[in-house]
Amino acid sequence: MSGGFTRDELAIDPLDLAVMLLGSELESVAGEGPVRARIVEVEAYRGLDDPASHSYRGRTPRNDVMWGPAGHLYVYFVYGMHFCANVVGTRDGEPGAVLLRAAEVVEGAPLAKARRPKARGDGSLAGGPAILTTVLGLGREHNGLDLTDPASPVRLLAGERVDADRVRTGPRVGVAAAMEVPWRFWVDGSPAVSAYRRGGKRSPR
DNA sequence: TTTCGGATCCCCT
DNA sequence: GGGGATCCGAAAA
Q1: Mean pLDDT score, A61-82
Q2: How many CB atoms lie within 10 A of CB A49?
Q3: What are the UniProt keywords, alphabetically (predicted)?
Q4: Fewer Cβ close by (within 10 Å): the C or N end of chain A?
Q5: Among all strands, which nt has the closest C1' to A54 (CA)?
Q6: How is chain A split into domains, by residue range?
């Protein structure tokens, strides 16, 4: 079980896809690549009834990719300065995607570090969704890429399986809506996993 | 056309 | 532990 995924393997409920993606690797040859990173933290966004999902308000040119096909890359711009990357997963034609939150760089660390001149550390960690896209050199131009296509500059590779007892779940980070839904998944013990911050403005109370 | 809020990161205290 | 940077997408009017 190595190499790339097939589209059928990824055309599943984003909740299942989220778990499957833990331990898999994203490789990018964008720019001067390659940089390859092992995914250790993800969040699922799914359907028309999830207020935190971009798909909640219906299909728009921006979120069009979320409607499938599965296995494509959904990149969006946030906060006027950051990009975040998702893997599209669909169930019964519902829109859905898995946000890639954190990863460990396993190849191309020097380039990864060079892409983050202000950061401390050795460039082997990508702890945060916007850091992950920076390290891999991902941007708007990569939106909609087929991650299962061997010719694609960004590909998803099956990595080492993560033991089920090392998978943790909890509420999504920075999301005010649907906090009761534990749709965040991460690999216990990875130094790249971000510290939890609750959603919404400041701490209500 | 205008308004407003957001799946964030980094530096400073 | 808190606030500023900085700009796009969607909704309202």
Answers
A1: 92
A2: 10
A3: DNA damage, DNA repair, Hydrolase
A4: C
A5: B7
A6: 7-187
Answer yes or no: is A24 CB < 7 A from strand B.
Answer: no
Residue pair A95/A59 in contact (Cβ under 8 Å)? The answer is: yes
Calculate the angstrom distance between C1' of C2 and CA of A202: 10
For chain A, give the percent of residues with pLDDT over 90: 63
Please give the sequence-ordered ranges of beta strands (E in DSSP) within chain A, or none if there are none: 25-28, 35-46, 73-78, 82-88, 96-107, 125-127, 154-157, 167-170, 184-187
Q: Is the CB of A195 under 7 A from strand B?
A: no
What phi-psi label fits residue A73: left (phi over 0), alpha (psi between -120 and 50 degrees) or beta? beta
Structure tokens at A116: 């983050």
pLDDT in tens, A86-105: 999 988 788 999 999 999 99
Give the mean pLDDT of chain A.
Answer: 88
Give the nucleotide with minimal C1' distance to the Cα of A64: C9
Nucleotide nearest to A58 (CA to C1'): C10
